[in-house]
Design goal:
- The protein has six helices and eight strands; from the N terminus they run E-H-E-H-E-E-H-E-E-H-E-H-E-H.
- The chain is α+β, with helices and mostly antiparallel strands.
- It has one domain.
- It has an eight-stranded mixed β-sheet.
Length: 186
């Protein structure tokens, strides 16, 4: 079973990108997927969870267009349509799969929702993100009820242990410039 929990709100040590705020997406709900799974020696990045979250993004505004930015630099510059991203060849083994940086939903020329992958499995990170694959979903309103319900009702939900509680983001001070540099280097 793969453990999933939720964190609502912005973290002082991981602020949202400026373009997210400019789009009016002031509410964050993080879906935290533990990468440690019992009886599995390697970290697990659950592609089925990512696909289910993409289905949530698509359903948020069915008239909108979903695009993918595989890296942060591609946001707004070199995004792929969801269809093009899914059609592109990927790793032959799903164990080698890693989620893209961002999934963006635009409708009527405006960003309506975005999902940013936070790769805490690469750097450790503070609780409750330590060694997780975290998907921060930014919207114009609170998703703390609708998104967990969507995951609980999704096909394949039996593979997840979903924590019913939604944790509030911490008020920890941001890391020093030296700590941020250390995280980027290692």
């Amino acid at each position: 079973m793969i453990d999933i929990r939720f964190v609502a709100g912005l973290e002082s040590f991981a602020p949202a990108a400026d373009w997210i705020g400019r789009a009016g997406l002031g509410h964050r709900l993080a879906v935290v997927q533990d990468t440690s799974v019992e009886d599995v020696p390697d970290m697990v990045l659950d592609a089925a969870l990512w696909r289910t979250l993409v289905a949530f993004v698509q359903g948020f505004d069915p008239s909108g267009d979903v695009s993918i930015a595989t890296t942060e630099k591609q946001v707004g510059r070199a995004e792929l349509s969801l269809d093009a991203f899914l059609a592109a060849p990927g790793p032959a083994d799903e164990d080698d799969w890693a989620p893209p940086h961002a999934v963006l939903l635009r409708a009527e020329g405006a960003l309506k929702l975005c999902m940013i992958t936070e790769a805490w499995w690469q750097v450790g990170g503070p609780a409750p993100y330590h060694d997780s694959c975290t998907y921060s979903i930014f919207a114009g309103h609170n998703l703390s009820e609708s998104l967990p319900a969507f995951l609980r009702d999704a096909a394949g939900a039996q593979r997840w242990t979903i924590d019913p509680a939604v944790i509030s983001a911490s008020d920890e001070p941001p890391p020093s410039w030296l700590e941020r540099l250390w995280r980027r280097l290692f």
